[in-house]
Amino acid sequence: MDLSHVIEHGMTTYPGLPGPLICDFLSREASRARYAPGVEFQIGKVEMVANTGTYLDAPFHRYPGGIDIAGLPLASLARLEAIVVRARGAGRAIGPEAFAGRDIAGRAVLVRTGWDVHWGTSAYLSGHPFLTDAAAKYLVNGGAALVGIDSLNIDDIDDGARPVHSRLLGAGIPIVEHLCDMGSLPEEGFRFSAVPAKVAGMGSWPVRAFAEL
Question: Does 13 map to a domain?
């Protein structure tokens, strides 16, 4: 089950960040002069910031000495046992009580807020649900392997301290933001993958996030 937004030319992921430029480097028409008759290829070009679409944050996103996207072990990103925490209607600030009684150790913890219904509209860009610092502390202490959310940011963007990013990434726990379509997922009993390209020197990168039921 696909849990990722489509990356499209000019789209807005986060306020203040430019949308991607998606175009041809070599068009099919231009390629015809390079190949045998009837043979053509398209080579695309993408110019974008790393925080575009559904993306994963590695510790390097927050800390200069942290592991970057290329350094994350594949086993920490692919086929993780996962749970969904349904926080829709819980208010903007999602605290540790949302995770109480759930087995989070070694699992990807996916927080469904329902905010993804606003994707592509101005409503998506402000007033979003987020985790509290206490929730992040609970997830770290509980041994979460990865934390994802279907919202604009896992932190309150009005808080410049970014406590959730700081705590989770400081503990080596990757974060996936801008997930979508989690409504039909079961609460547990599935595996989650969010694998970026193996790019050195980057703290964030788009992923194709998906669940295996």
Answer: no
pTM over 0.85: yes
CATH of the domain at 175: 3.50.30.50
* 186 domain-assigned: yes
Residue 43 located in a structural domain:
no
Q: Is residue 33 part of a domain?
A: no
- pLDDT, tens digit (0-9, with 9 covering 90-100), for 61-78: 999 999 999 999 999 999
Domain count, the chain: 1
User: pLDDT tens digit string along 65-113?
Assistant: 999 999 999 999 999 999 999 997 778 999 999 999 999 999 999 999 9
Q: What angle do CA 54, 59, 55 make, to 5 degrees?
A: 5
